[in-house]
Amino acid sequence: MGQVVVDDDSPYGESSRLLKHVSADDDEDCNASVSCQGSGLGLWSNKKWGDTGSYAAMKKNQSWFQSSDGDWELARVLNSSGTESLISYSEGKVLKVSSASLLPANPEILDGVDDLMQLSYLNEPSVLYNLQYRYDRDMIYSKAGPVLVAINPFKKIPLYGNDYIDAYESKSKDSPHVYAIADTAIREMMRDEVNQSIVISGESGAGKTETAKIAMQYLAALGGGSGIEYEILKTNPILEAFGNAKTSRNNNSSRFGKLIEIHFSETGKISGAQIQTFLLEKSRVVQCSEGERSYHSFYQLCAGAPPSLREKLNLKGVHEYKYLQQSTCHSINGVNDAEQFHIVVEALDAVHVSKENQENAFAMLAAVLWLGNVTFSVIDNENHVEPVIDEALLNVSKLIGCEAHALKLALSTRKMKAGNDNIVQKLTLAQAIDTRDALAKSIYSCLFDWLVEQINKSLSVGKHQTGRSISILDIYGFESFDVNSFEQFCINYANERLQQHFNRHLFKLEQEEYIQDGIDWAKVEFDDNEDCLNLFEKKPLGLLTLLDEESTFPNGTDLTFAEKLKQHITSNSSFKGERGKAFTVHHYAGEVTYDTSGFLEKNRDLLHLDSIKLLSSCTCELPQAFASNMLSLSEKPVHGPLHKSGGPDSQKLSVVTKFKGQLFQLMQRLESTTPHFIRCIKPNNSQSPGIYHQGLVLQQLKCCGVLEVVRISRSGFPTRMSHQKFARRYGFLLLKHAALQDPLSVSVAILHQCDILPEMYQIGYTKLFFRTGQIGKLEDTRKRTLNGISRVQSCFRGHKVRQYTKELKRGIFSLQSFARGEKSRKEFAVLLQRQRAAVLIQKHIKAKISRKRFEDIHGASVKLQAVIRGCLVRRCSGDIGLLQFGLEKVNQSDEVLVKPSYLAELQRRILKAEAGLREKEEENDILHQRLLQYENRWSGYEQKMKSMEDVWQKQMRSLQSSLSIAKKSLSLNDSERNSDASINTLTNDETTPGRDASNGKRNNGYENVRPMSAGLSVISRLAEEFEQRSQVFGDDANFLVEVKSGQVEANLDPDHELRRLKQMFEGWKKDYTTRLRETKTVLNKLGHEDGDVEKGKRKWWGRLNGSRVI
């Protein structure tokens, strides 16, 4: 065996190095003295298992012993004398046993190691205990060398999801997992450009289907992005609904095999997929044992179909259909068939199956169910029958689109050709039932194949084909029941082929390659199943050949087939004849006894030509497609034992012939890939979580050949690489240039430089062979070196790019500055012209509006005064006339009588005049208040002017300080700035409008009434001019600073320009101060004019009041 190989990164590495290593010679000496006891001890104590020396040789305190029920228990040795030992095991029980029956136990530090290769003693109880230890802690995955062992937990465990996918993708987790296998496959595919395959095997109920879905989930997550990965995952509900069923051992047993080939693009993204199926169990459609169910699709359709579909298909409950009545089990605990139906419909939508085709598919399912309800009645004394035209027959004819009479004839008669004559033969009850069931099985089988074809069309790769793919094989496991029929015969034959592939990859090819390359290697014995495969495939006397031959004979029966087997192949050690129609085959996983009842009928799988013609005459598309497919298969020429005359029925390929052809194609495809094996283990038959049956697990481990794999991997070199490829991949790691050396010398130099120990590799004639974990170390070194090289390259390239970018930016900035300057100067000239025009237009418009408003107010005032004065004059004139007339009368006559009406009129007029006087006084008070408001507003304007002067002075001081700083920072440069003219023009032009405005205001000062809004307008214009000029001087100063510091290139002298800018600033400042004073004078004058107007009003009202008093 050699030394135990322990990965340096393993937590058990240090302890494992301290363990006592046992050589192969020591094992042989120890095993020679073993006295085997117990049912399983003899096999496991044989030399081929290794590490099973007697207790006396191992001298350990902890040992395993086998109890009476066959289970292994851990015991502590109390005393040992000679060939007997006293042990203490569970609950303090003490027992005296033979020392030779004890097997050594591993130290506690190795409890629960994730790889069986790390066990010091690789014996039966140690392996079982290690797997159980991990299983009890929900660690369901373990490694057995290159093989992943997955134990079905029968419950949900938190080991999946995006977090775990990210962890395994980033290598932050390295514990055994399906994700790790899928990650290895995709990385090797991209690295080596070789197609990969993941072979998942195990018994029914071991979790193969779920494991395949988990692997697909990881591949979809890593290779996703195009959207097709969603469609690939959605194929699972469809295939499970139409291809899975509940059996006595598994609630979701796959009754077919499938190979999913996922294609990848050159960048590692999924570009498409293709699904291939094998050997659908058609007999389950018409036969169902108690406690089992038919295919899930029937129950899902009956439970979840919407009312419209139920009415269209005339669906009833599952209890109404005879095909489903054969078992009382119609539901599965924890599964809602109605919800599953909706999931299947969503999946069909995802793979682009149209609603019309979905309804047609469901119609075919309903037709199969109604076919089971078709009954027959005897019509004559010869027991000939014909179908009863009832609801079932009418529904079948409606669903498949044929006439009820045509269906009746196809189920009760058979047309035969004798020479040139056509003979119609009536069928007996048994023949009619077989015809009906054959039609139902054929419709369902064709429907299943049609669905797979539709899925493949949706997932087709097309033009994106690159040749890179990962195939996931989920195929039925080895089966052995109380009664084993034709289906188990084919399934176990397929498993024999897969086991040979497993053996060839891990045992035969491994050892042959070691021998061819001259590697120092101790050959390991293992069980080969070549004899069993010869039993099935040998010509002309193999099981498959004899079955096909007997199927062609019209008088052949299951009994004659069994007798023929006993006659011709009893010499094969893997075959044993039994009484009656049974025979036994010694498979790699154990002996299985087959009952040949139904073998010939199931192998022929005959659907009579009348039934095919019935389907071709249907109006529905699917039955026509089914018939066309079957006719095309029957027209193919057949060579060999099935090539007989007798029409299309006899020309059809037998089931085992088609299956054998599919199996050989599958093996050829797998041989062209790098395989990765996952062995699924079922811990108990009750499908209950937390239960671990040692005997059941041990049987499956034997079937899988797990321990042989561990032993070869422990003592072998699982990783190999050609000299050329190794030198090409790792040659750059050498410190010295080795381009002229041969690949072998380069490879040896690399190994020495990387400190790979000599016992960790061997050099062959054409390849280098490494023990487990060594390539990983080289890959880590390569990755670190490449990362360093990439970092240096990135830094250098970044430096070059940054230098180029800086130069490019500098040129762009210069060009942009000239372009933007020219553009800004042009835009500024246009804006300046527009501003001048706008100011001129505003001046004339505002003057016209002011004049119009003044004229309107003045005219209205004059009219109002005229009316009031006239009214007053007329009133005064009337009173004086009356008084003069009264005096004349008094003078003429001493006694003058005045009428009371005149007195009343006079009193009324006096009161009215007094009321008018009061109104005028109130108006006078209102005008007086307005005058006070105007005076207050004027004082506010004066305060604002003072504050503006303070702000202006502060800004002037800050501007002067900025100019002085800029002057100091400038140096002598012989360049002139072209924008001086625009600045001088701006200064001279903008000064004139201000003066014109001031003169305009002074020219209008002769008017009596001046609105306060004019003052506000003048002040606002001065403030705007101050802000604009401050901004212009500030921008020019900043520009000169940038030119002096070298940030901007310009053809001007910064010192000269600074002096000119200062002169311009002083001129503008002086002009602005003058205009500000003039504006203040104008505003004061406006205030005085308003005061004079108010005083005039007061005088006028005073005269008016005086006249009234008079």
Description:
- A seven-stranded mixed beta sheet has the order 6-7-21-8-17-11-12, sandwiched between helices.
- β3 and β4 form a beta hairpin.
- The chain has 1110 residues and is an alpha+beta fold.
- The N terminus and C terminus are likely disordered.
- It is 58% helix and 11% strand.
- α7 packs across α8, α30 packs across α31 and α35 packs antiparallel against α36.
- Keywords: Actin-binding, ATP-binding, Calmodulin-binding, Coiled coil, Motor protein, Myosin, Nucleotide-binding, Repeat.
Q: Could you give a quick summary of the protein structure above?
A:
By secondary structure, the chain is of the alpha+beta class. The chain is 58% helix and 11% strand.
Q: What key phrases describe this protein's structure?
A:
disordered C terminus; 36 helices; five-stranded antiparallel beta sheet; 1110 residues; alpha+beta; seven-stranded mixed beta sheet
Question: How many DSSP-defined strands?
Answer: 24
- Give the strand order of the largest sheet, numbering strands 1, 2, ... along the chain: 6-7-21-8-17-11-12
What's the N-to-C terminus distance? 149 Å
Task: Specify the structural class.
Answer: alpha+beta
Unreliable spans: 1-60, 637-651, 971-1011, 1100-1110
Which whole number gives the mean pLDDT? 79
Radius of gyration: 54 Å
Most strands sheet: 7 strands, mixed
Instruction: Tally the helices.
Output: 36
| Percentage beta strand | 5-15%
Percent range of helical residues: 55-70%
Based on Cα principal axes, name the global outline.
elongated
